[in-house]
Amino acid sequence: MHHAGRTRLLVGMEPDAQRPLDLAFARAVAWLEAVPERHVAPATGVDAVQDRLGRVLPEAGQDPAAVVGRLADAVEPALIASQSPRFYGWVIGGTHPVAVAADWLVTAWDQNAAMREPMPGTSAVEELAGRWLLDLLGLPATASVGFTTGATTANLAGLAAARHRVLADAGWDVEAHGLGGAPRVRVLAGAERHGSVDLALRYLGLGAATLVPADREGRIDVAALEAELARSSDPTIVVLQAGNLHSGAFDDVGAASDAAHRHGAWAHVDGAFGLWAAATPRLTHLAAGLARADSWATDAHKTLNTPYDCGVSFVAHPADAVAALGAQASYLVATASGLDPWTLVPEMSRRARGVPVWATLAALGRSGVAALVDGLVAAAALLADELGRLAGVEILNDVVYTQVCVTFGADERTAAVADALRAQGEVYASTSRWHDRTVLRFSVSNAWTDAGQVRRTVEAVRRAIDAVP
């Protein structure tokens, strides 16, 4: 390669500035190529990494390429191969190469994507991504789309809009006066809501939700919700879920949203990984009535398989999002529409995290996204079927989406089998507690988890079972 011509483009950098970039690219590609057959669990821990990096701040500067090399050498042994097609922990997706490439460009471009008019390039891409997402997921075309760090902040953004609206309807300006002296905001959520909802409510000063009973699969009891709604006329937010953390089950969002609206309440949907069911005709029964809610949260890193930092918040009435999250100042160049990116999420400066979302959608197309989601669901069903044939294995949930929860008998044995499985290094699944039992939870979230990878997974589980008396 002709380095002289390239380095002239690196304005203000030293002449050898290309060397660390070349090395980082080579190490990144080598990592990605090794992931499918890599030992999934980390080989070292925090202390080992810090020892290799050096714990004392250097007095003098060091060669940038040497720094990059030392960083990769020290950190890679402590990385978990979460991009592996046999990684099933914590609903963590893989990463499409096109999304990784787009994310590299985002870093190199270094635009503040919160500012639309001064930095139109990345804003244009994110706006397209937002429109495509609304179309793909069947949400109102006029809804606002904000790109957040992840599902927790997407929930926060949607619930902030909800807090604004229900208090405004009660005659209280929470943005001007805060919560002191405000009418009490009642939040109703299913008993099996995700912890990110609790965090978002805490950040917003709304406190703990009143929990509504759920069925065995974690779906909110709509009749019980209706009864709870009727108990009070306080400003109310209802939190629903599309994709239960353990079972993958979906609330009846349409019926629950209708009940909320009959009582003047706001309906918010936490669809961190489940909202994507709306992208495939085969799963429309799970997503029925989704568009009748008022706000939605998801995370493209999970099901769409983009890199981290790709949460998405949707609000049916954009003015509520702007009122809750927006700011105006003389130094900010506002758009005529008022829907500047900084008014839709809790950040006034951020990277262009919607660009990898656009790149993935463009590369896959509508049919490709549907095939991705269908493939995850098919892999989960096959995994449940094959695991269920092993002696001593019990599948605890109805496998309707991408989650499979299993036990191997008593809690102690389930934990021991899980430890043995992870120690082998070929498969990683995370343990949890569900229905007062220790479970091993397989979250099928990687686009490359096909039938062959499922069978490798089952054989690894068989070996783990045999290893535990």
- Taken together, the total number of domains comes to 2
CATH topology of the largest domain: Aspartate Aminotransferase, domain 2
Separation, N- and C-terminal Cα atoms: 59 Å
The spatial strand order of the largest sheet comes to 1-7-6-5-4-2-3
In the CATH classification, which architecture of the largest domain applies? Answer: 3-Layer(aba) Sandwich
Strand content: 5-15%
Helix content: 40-55%
Major pleated sheet:
7 strands, mixed
What's the CATH first level of the largest domain?
A: Alpha Beta
Q: Look at the structure and name the CATH superfamily of the largest domain.
A: Type I PLP-dependent aspartate aminotransferase-like (Major domain)
Rg over alpha carbons = 24 Å
Mean pLDDT: 94
List descriptors.
Aspartate Aminotransferase, domain 2; seven-stranded mixed beta sheet; 469 residues; four-stranded antiparallel beta sheet; alpha/beta; disordered N terminus
Notes on the structure:
The protein has 469 residues and is α/β, with parallel strands linked by helices. It folds into two domains: 3-81; 101-360, Type I PLP-dependent aspartate aminotransferase-like (Major domain) (Aspartate Aminotransferase, domain 2, 3-Layer(aba) Sandwich), CATH 3.40.640. The protein has helices at 3-7, 18-34, 46-53, 64-75, 97-109, 120-137, 151-169, 174-177, 195-203, 222-230, 253-262, 318-325, 354-388, 411-424, 451-467; strands at 144-148, 186-190, 210-212, 236-241, 266-270, 295-299, 311-315, 394-395, 403-407, 430-434, 437-443. A seven-stranded mixed β-sheet has the order 1-7-6-5-4-2-3, sandwiched between helices. A four-stranded antiparallel β-sheet has the order 8-9-11-10. The protein is globular. The chain starts with a helix and ends with a helix. The model is unreliable at 1-9 (pLDDT under 50). Its cofactor is pyridoxal 5'-phosphate. Keywords: Aminotransferase, Decarboxylase, Lyase, Pyridoxal phosphate, Transferase. GO terms for molecular function: aromatic-L-amino-acid decarboxylase activity; pyridoxal phosphate binding; transaminase activity. The modification N6-(pyridoxal phosphate)lysine is found at residue 302. It holds the Pfam family Pyridoxal_deC.
